[in-house]
Structures are given as C-alpha cells and as structure tokens.
Specification:
Layout: H1 2-30, H2 35-70, E1 85-86, E2 90-94, E3 97-105, E4 111-123, E5 129-139, E6 144-149, E7 160-165, E8 171-172, E9 181-184, E10 187-191, E11 196-205, E12 209-222, E13 227-238, E14 243-250, E15 258-266, E16 275-277, E17 291-292
Antiparallel strand pairs: 1-3, 2-3, 3-6, 4-5, 4-7, 4-8, 9-11, 9-17, 10-11, 11-14, 12-13, 12-15, 12-16
Length: about 300
C-alpha cells in the first residue's frame, strides 16, 4: 500500500508543478494590467481555491481506488483446519466376541490426511487397561466413516474404551477421483452345518477407476434396532463399473434374532496407486435399483 500512495503523490506533484510553471509566465505579464482588471482576476482566483482543492483530493481518491482494484493481495489457501470429530468408543458384546467402533468425521471441506495412526485402549470395570488395538487410516475431505475393532482379545470383561489419534497432518486436496461405492442391503440366513449366521450381498464400483483396495464395514442390528455385532473385510482389485459379491459370517448369531444388516464401503482416494483410471468407453454401470450409497 505504501507504493500505491507514493505513485499517487508523484502524479499529483507533477500536475502541480506544471501549473506553477504556467503561472510564472502568466505572472510576468500581469504587471502591465490595469488595477481594476487585476482585482477582478484576484477575486476569481480566490473563488477557485475551494474548487481546486476538491478536484485535487477527488483525483487522489479516484486514483487510489483504481490502483486498489488492480493491486495483488495475498490470501491464505484455506482457513485454519478444524479437528476431526470423534464419537465416544462403543463396545459391542455377543457370546464369544467383543467388538468396538467409533465414528470419525472430517469437517474440513478441502483438507485431507493420510497415514493417520490411532490406538484403541480398553479398560475393565476397575478402569484398568486390559487391551489395546492400533491401526492406520485416512480422512478424505468432508468424509464420515467408522473405525472398527472386530474382535478384542482379552480374558477380562471389557467395560469401556478410548481412542487416541496421533497428530493429523492436513493437506489441501482438490481434484480427487470421483468414486462412488454402492452397497445394497444384504440378505441374511442361517447356515445349517455348522450353525452359522451369514449375510450375502455385493458392492458396486460405480466409477471408471480400478480400485486396488476397498474396505467394507458391517453393522448387525437385532429386532429392536440395537447394534449387536460389527465386522469388516477388505476386497481387492475391483474393476470399473464392476460388482463384487461377498459373504460375511457370524458364528455366534442366529437369523431369527436379526432385524437388519448395514454395509458401508470406503476406499483411499489419496493413494494414486489405489484408484487407476481405465478407458471404459464401452462399459456401462450396472443397474442396482435396491442399492443405497453409504452416508
């Protein structure tokens, strides 16, 4: 802004100097005028002083505005990042298995993070630490996801849990591949020999990208809509616009007590090697009228 003011002042001084030079030549001839003409001229000049001042300062304001419109101003690429929002740890216990999960949300619309390390810690009824589970995840811009511990290894009953994240290093990520994973509501049955509850369904890669890895997270609800089991699995090398079938087992459950099974799909779009574009000019996305997109 200092340079702008100097430029405006130089222009005004240049105009003033030219007027002064013209006035010097005019003043030498003024001494030969009659007194009455000079009085009239002086009266007119005194009356022009307010007009001159108004024009001078008005010109300065106009020039300042014009330079301000073209001035380069630095803006931050994004505002300060917001912390990830994490729900309390939920413990899910069934006969022979104890699991846990949290929901994590990235409130930043343009920021993402990869290689996020986290640790679940579990306590008994006395608050003593009895088990741990670690993992690595990622957060896409504005993403909401579940982190799951399918089975907690402990000889004691788990009463509570916490989760801690190491420092999340946010980066501005634009122009990520547009990938949509479509999961249907799976069917579920009891398998007779051995007696096992299972759900079967499919996930659709509705994009022109080959996905090297996709994580599926399962939530099993009883007939009162209470979560009674959580699990996860990884699917690999899903072609563009391809459907991948799955079959997930829970030996400790029976179909008669289950109300529904919900499936969510996630894939890491921050890894360039995970989503590879392929020419699919002749491919058509599969139809799945009963499907629902996660979140």
């Amino acid at each position: 802004m200092a340079g702008l003011k100097e430029t405006v002042q130089i222009q005004i001084q240049d105009i003033t100097l030219r007027l002064e030079e013209a006035g010097f030549g005019f003043g030498r001839g003024l001494q030969f005028w009659p007194n009455w003409k000079r009085k009239i001229l002086y009266t007119l000049l005194i009356g022009l002083i307010p007009t001159f001042l108004a024009v001078r300062y008005g010109t300065e304001l106009v020039l300042s505005y014009q330079y301000k419109q073209t001035e380069l101003v630095a803006h931050p690429s994004y505002s300060l990042p917001s912390d990830a929002v994490v729900t309390p740890v939920s413990i899910v216990g069934t006969a022979g298995r104890t699991s846990a999960y949290v929901e994590v949300r990235n409130p930043n619309l343009e920021l993402a993070a990869d290689g996020i390390r986290y640790t679940f810690t579990f306590q008994n009824q006395l608050g003593q630490e009895i088990a741990k589970s670690t993992g690595i995840t990622y957060l896409l811009p504005n993403e909401r996801k579940y982190l799951v511990v399918p089975r907690i290894d402990s000889t004691e009953q788990i009463r509570s849990g916490t989760v801690e994240f190491e420092e999340i290093r946010w980066q501005r990520k634009l122009n990520l591949p547009e990938v949509q994973l479509i999961t249907n509501d799976p069917r579920y049955f009891d398998e007779a020999n051995p007696l096992t509850f299972y759900a079967e369904g499919s996930v659709v890669n509705s994009s022109p990208y080959r996905l090297n890895s996709v994580k599926l997270v399962y939530f099993v609800y009883d007939r009162t809509d209470r979560i009674v089991a959580v699990s996860q699995r990884d699917e690999f090398n899903i072609s563009p616009f391809a459907r991948r079938a799955y079959k997930q087992l829970w030996p400790e459950l029976t179909a008669s007590s289950i109300g529904r099974v919900k499936v969510y799909g996630y894939t890491n779009l921050l890894d360039p090697a995970n989503a590879l574009y392929e020419d699919t000019a002749t491919s058509q996305p599969p139809t799945n009228p009963n499907s629902s997109s996660p979140f």
